[in-house]
Every structure is written in C-alpha cells, then in structure tokens.
C-alpha cells in the first residue's frame, strides 16, 4: 500500500497587531498631495501592513481602490484589507484581493518596542527567577505565579490571577481578557500599576499598604486593595 | 579555554571602561594572559584609558572584516607584558560588528588567552548585545542612583535571555555586581542609594564597591589604569575586586564614611 502523501498545508491561528489607516476623503489626488506633504509622519507605518478604515466615506460611492493601492504602496505601506465599508464596496475590494475585516477598535495604541522580551507563558506558569526591567510575562488562559521579585519596569499579565511572592515593583495586570473575578496577590506591594480586567490604578509610597502583603480585587468599576491576613 | 567576562551596565558614564581597564590589568598582574576588547565602536575610549592611543594601527573592525590579522591589531600593554588591548574603530558604527565576525575573533582569542574582557558600550542596542553574547561571566557596573539601577536591571534581564549561554540552554552567565562612584558620606546624607538598597533591588552577588575619587579622573587623563595608582583607595578596591572574582575572600572596604579625627575636628582639617 502506498503511504498517503503528506499535505504541505498547515492551518493554524495567529493574532496580529495591525495599523489602521483611516481615509476621510475618497479623492486620489488629495491622498497623493497629503502623502507628499506629510511623508515623514507616514514613515511610522513604512513597510507595515495596514487596514484601510473607510468609516468617513460615503458608502454609496464606488471607490478608486486600484489607484489607492498604487499610491500607498509607492509611499511604502501595504494595505491588506478594508473595514467599515458597504457590501458593494467590500465586493469591489475583494476583487482586488483586499478582504473585508470586521474587528473592534483597539482603545489604546501600543508603542513599538525595540527589544521586546515578551514571553508567552503557558497557563499556570511558575517563574522562579526575578523579572527584570523590560521583561514581560503573560500567562494566557490561566494564572501566573512569580516566586521572585517583579522589578520596576517589568510587567506580569495573566488571564487569571497574578501571584507574586517577591516584592511587586513593576506592573501587574490580572484578568486581561476581561475576567472581573481575577485578583492580584503579592507579598510586598510596591507596584507601579495594578489592573484587573482593564481597570487600573497607579500606586506610590503614600499608599497605606505600601510594602505590605496585599491583594487587589475588582468590585464593579473600583479596585480594592486590602491587606493579606495571615 | 579562556573565560570571557563582559563589563556592562546599560547606562553610560558609570565606569565600564575604567573598570575594564583596571580589571584586565589586575588579572594580568596576577599572571593571567589577558586581552581587553573595546566593543564601543565609534566612541573609541579604552585605548585612551590604557594609554595606547598612539599605537593603534589596525583595530577590531579591521580584523572582523579580514583587513588585518588579529596579531596585527593586538597591542601589548606598556606596563604588563601578558596584557593585550584590542582597540576598536572610531570611524565606523556598531553595525560593523557582525555576529559571525565577532564569533570568529572570539574563537581565535580563546586559544591564546586565559581571560577575555569585553568592554561593552552603553545602551541595549547591537553593540551591547554583541559584547555580552559570548560571556561566561558579567560584571554589571552600577552607580548608587535609581536610573543606573533600573538600567542594570534591564541588562541583567537581557543577559539571561539573549546571550549565547541562554540560547544554547547552557549554565547561565555568572552575574557580579560592581558598585562604582560610591560616596559613603552622601549615602549617609540620603543623597545616594546605599549598598543595601542596590543589592535589595538587583539581588545578585556583590563583587565590590569602588569609592568615588579624584584619582579616577587623574588616572584616565594620564592613560594609566586606576589599579596602578599605588596606595590609592581606588587601586586597593580594584585589587579586591580581582581577588574576589578569582574566588578569594576579602572584607568590604570604603563603604563607611571616613572618621574625622580629633585634631581634624578641632582644627577644621
């Protein structure tokens, strides 16, 4: 019997952060003039894939996609899809290989970092080494346990709880996918910032529990920090 | 096999080059064949501190690019016969340090020396990454102030993640803390972080404390590594550093403010 030929295709998922370029005018001429005028501002997205956001453009218009693509590629950015378009506009875009993307807006733009030291930890990960300035650990789908210190400038994130048994001096974010029941536990609260399900708070040495063992929980829209009793 | 030691810090101006020169000289004084390499391409300084700037013909970058042989670029120290300096180029930039080129030079040095001391540039860009990549041990130079401590912390994270040892899953780099420009009086006055504060924040073994001193400036202006400034507390402190690095026990000195004597107090010394 012949062995079944192996497929060369592998399908898997991935999450990517993309820049969104919002066009407020459909005219190609205006776009070209604008690009020429503020070329340096666009250098930020040079070489990057962008999604064209057409919220501000009349949904009944037939759009000059071919010219847009040419102009934008010349300027060094690569449109890979469109969003907020009418069905007709989406169809025309699809014909040119630009899919219609339906995603929600990111509320906060994250600044690109030169030397990312982000590690995605498996759920329930335990770290025995101190986390140092510039390091980030994210426990996707579970809790994160750090046995050593989380130093100033370091960041720990978890979909579930965050436990820090050394001093917590950096940032700790629990329930980052929106779990409001997530909590942060630490032996020494000296954090720059704590957050649960997107509700955050910055701290300083004035805080009554500064340097103490504490837990942080979320009640509605307020973070509560209470002492950890032995 | 030579041991490779990187002298690094993240922050600039904390004393990396001064330490590299003094530490390499100290190892050579004890009879180890030692080479000290300047990784700060474009801001060539080590040759000045070692007092050999007029003898630089070929440099590290020439060797990497195959324009000179290693033996042509190595400069023998004027005071110690088993110490060599591999200077860098002032006219090129950090991109001239290719990964393969550095690896080749390091391999060649391995066979000729006992210790390779790498003087890292400041920052966390390619130059600093190349300098620490081959390290077996690291001396993290830190000043007793918060921004220096923060940058040292960052470098420690990079040492643990981006070195050859980390990539190969080998035993991690041995980390040593060296506190420089320490002024016990100002610590007492609360103007500077104390030794305990810094250790509490960084949590790595202490290799030594170098006191703040005029002598350092004099030494580098004259092109003499500070360890040769006989009788000075800086020289003694660097000798202790070398001894501790080699596994000897030495008590800490120069961490308490000088006691003002009775007569000095009386006559306002």
From TrEMBL, chain A:
NCBIfam families to which the protein is assigned, alphabetical: minC
One GO BP annotation of this record: division septum assembly
Septum formation inhibitor MinC C-terminal domain residues: 127-225
Function noted in UniProt: Cell division inhibitor that blocks the formation of polar Z ring septums. Rapidly oscillates between the poles of the cell to destabilize FtsZ filaments that have formed before they mature into polar Z rings. Prevents FtsZ polymerization.
Keyword Cell cycle in annotation: yes
SUPFAM superfamilies per the UniProt record, alphabetical: Cell-division inhibitor MinC, C-terminal domain
Quaternary structure and interacting proteins, as annotated: Interacts with MinD and FtsZ.
Record's protein name: Probable septum site-determining protein MinC
Record Pfam families: MinC_C (PF03775)
Lineage summary: Bacteria, Pseudomonadati, Pseudomonadota, Acidithiobacillia, Acidithiobacillales
Natural source organism: Igneacidithiobacillus copahuensis
Family: Belongs to the MinC family.
Coiled coil regions in record: none
Superkingdom of source: Bacteria
Entry keywords, A to Z: Cell cycle, Cell division, Septation
Automatic annotation (TrEMBL), chain B:
Example GO biological process: division septum assembly
Keywords: ATP-binding, Cell cycle, Cell division, Nucleotide-binding, Septation
Gene3D superfamilies registered for this protein in UniProt: P-loop containing nucleotide triphosphate hydrolases
InterPro entries on file: CobQ/CobB/MinD/ParA_Nub-bd_dom, MinD, MinD_FleN, P-loop_NTPase, ParA/MinD_ATPase
All copies of domain CobQ/CobB/MinD/ParA nucleotide binding, residue ranges: 5-225
Binding-site list for ATP: 11-18
Single GO molecular function: ATP hydrolysis activity
Coiled-coil zones: none
Entry GO CC: cytoplasmic side of plasma membrane; cytosol
Superkingdom of origin: Bacteria
Self-association state and partner proteins as the record states: Interacts with MinC and FtsZ.
PANTHER family in the record: SEPTUM SITE-DETERMINING PROTEIN MIND HOMOLOG, CHLOROPLASTIC, SEPTUM SITE-DETERMINING PROTEIN MIND HOMOLOG, CHLOROPLASTIC-RELATED
Family: Belongs to the ParA family. MinD subfamily.
Function: ATPase required for the correct placement of the division site. Cell division inhibitors MinC and MinD act in concert to form an inhibitor capable of blocking formation of the polar Z ring septums. Rapidly oscillates between the poles of the cell to destabilize FtsZ filaments that have formed before they mature into polar Z rings.
Protein's UniProt name: Septum site-determining protein MinD
């Amino acid at each position: 019997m012949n062995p079944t030929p192996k497929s060369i295709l592998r399908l898997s998922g991935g999450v990517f952060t993309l820049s969104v370029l919002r066009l407020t005018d459909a005219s190609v001429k205006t776009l070209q003039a604008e690009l020429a005028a503020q070329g340096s501002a666009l250098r930020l997205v040079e070489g990057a894939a962008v999604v064209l956001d057409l919220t501000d453009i009349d949904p009944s218009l037939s759009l000059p996609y071919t010219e847009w693509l040419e102009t934008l590629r010349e300027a060094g950015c690569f449109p890979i899809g469109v969003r907020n378009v009418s069905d007709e506009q989406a169809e025309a875009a699809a014909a040119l290989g630009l899919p219609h993307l339906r995603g929600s807006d990111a509320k906060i733009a994250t600044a690109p970092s030169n030397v990312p030291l982000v590690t995605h930890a498996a759920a329930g990960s335990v770290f025995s080494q101190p986390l140092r300035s510039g390091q980030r650990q994210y426990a996707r789908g579970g809790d994160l346990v750090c046995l050593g210190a989380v130093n100033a400038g370091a960041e720990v994130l978890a979909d579930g709880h965050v436990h820090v048994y050394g001093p917590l001096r950096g940032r700790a974010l629990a329930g980052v996918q929106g779990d409001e029941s997530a909590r942060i536990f630490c032996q020494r609260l000296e954090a720059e910032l704590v957050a649960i399900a997107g509700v955050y708070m910055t701290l300083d040495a004035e805080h009554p529990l500064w340097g103490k063992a504490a837990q942080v929980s979320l009640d509605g829209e307020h973070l509560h920090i209470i002492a950890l009793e032995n | 096999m030579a041991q490779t030691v990187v002298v690094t810090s993240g922050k600039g101006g904390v004393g990396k080059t001064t330490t590299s020169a003094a530490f390499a000289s100290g190892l050579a004084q004890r009879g180890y064949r030692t080479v000290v390499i300047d990784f700060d391409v474009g801001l060539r300084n080590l040759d000045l501190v070692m007092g050999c700037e007029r003898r630089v013909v070929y440099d590290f970058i020439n060797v990497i690019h195959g324009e000179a042989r290693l033996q042509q670029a190595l400069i023998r120290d004027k005071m110690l016969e088993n110490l060599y300096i591999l200077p860098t180029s002032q006219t090129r930039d950090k991109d001239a340090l290719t990964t393969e080129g550095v690896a080749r030079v390091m391999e060649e040095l391995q066979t000729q020396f006992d210790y390779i001391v790498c003087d890292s540039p400041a920052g966390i860009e390619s130059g600093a990454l190349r300098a620490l990549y081959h390290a077996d041990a690291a001396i993290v130079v830190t000043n007793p102030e918060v921004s220096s401590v923060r940058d040292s912390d960052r470098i420690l994270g990079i040492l643990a993640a981006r070195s050859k040892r980390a990539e190969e899953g080998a035993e991690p780099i041995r980390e040593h803390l060296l506190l420089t420009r320490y002024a016990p009086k100002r610590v007492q006055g609360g103007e500077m972080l104390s030794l305990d504060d810094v250790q509490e924040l960084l949590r790595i073994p202490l290799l030594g404390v170098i006191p703040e001193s005029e002598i350092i400036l004099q030494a580098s202006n004259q092109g003499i590594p500070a360890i040769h400034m006989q009788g000075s507390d800086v020289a003694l402190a660097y000798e202790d550093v070398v001894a501790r690095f080699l596994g000897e026990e030495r008590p800490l000195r120069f961490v308490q403010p000088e006691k003002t004597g009775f007569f000095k107090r009386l006559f306002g010394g």
